[in-house]
Amino acid sequence: MPMAPSCTLLFLLLPFLAAVTTSAEVAPGPAPQLNLTGILDKGGQYGTLLRLLNATHVDEQLSSQLKYSYDGLTFFAPTDAAFSKLKAGTLNGLTDQQQVQLMLYHVLSRYYSLSTFQTASNPLRTQASGAGGMYTVNVTSTTGQSMVNVSTGVATVPVGTTLYAEFPLAVYSVDDVLLPEQMFGTRSSKAPAPSSPTPAGKTKERKKGGAMPKNDVTAAEPTAGTTASNDSTDVAAAAAAGACVRLRWWAVVGAITLVGFANLVVVA
């Protein structure tokens, strides 16, 4: 019995329908949205950072950027222990805008794996900016090793655990908060130059019209007039002492002579 035209058409289309169904089943769905806060929450030691990202809305900004970014992003994530190293009141002393800047200072506007840091050209621009332009960091690494350090001008911070590293996002843990030099100053102020010691045997110069220091009075040599006066006084004193001795000697001689004369009178 011959098949109906409709059945024949259906029979011929069956292979194509099966292929279409199979393609629909294996076709991948849309790529899952990258979630920075989810990565940090999974890490388990970034509570302070998560609160700051939420309060400043930087988490929303980064999520939006990741959807359309061609270069990707790199994020340095300070741990709770890192925030505990800050002086008490540091975060509360920042304005809302400064807190936003602090969070964006931890974001590089490009995806960097640990190996690509070795060929990176310093300084690297962060997403924080101010009156002087974009804030930057210097990243150095040891060739052949995964030792990476981030220098801000305030401190040098080693990069720790890799929390996530798949384009377009890399997230690295750090044990210190990255502090921009523009907000927190340099690492240390210059120490005052030490005063030069006074050379031995050399007295300080007297100010015009001022009194001479005590040690200079002691070290000062007497003038010629003073020396002559002292010499005259010493000569006069010596002469007086000699005259006194001579008077005493004549007095003794006179006394002896009187005693002898008295004895002669008594005998006579």
Automatic annotation (TrEMBL):
This is FAS1 domain-containing protein. Residues 33-178 form the FAS1 domain. Belongs to the fasciclin-like AGP family. The keyword Transferase does not apply. It holds the Pfam family Fasciclin. The lineage of its organism: Eukaryota, Viridiplantae, Streptophyta, Embryophyta, Tracheophyta. It is a lipid-anchor; GPI-anchor. The keyword Lipoprotein applies. Residues 1-23 form the signal peptide.
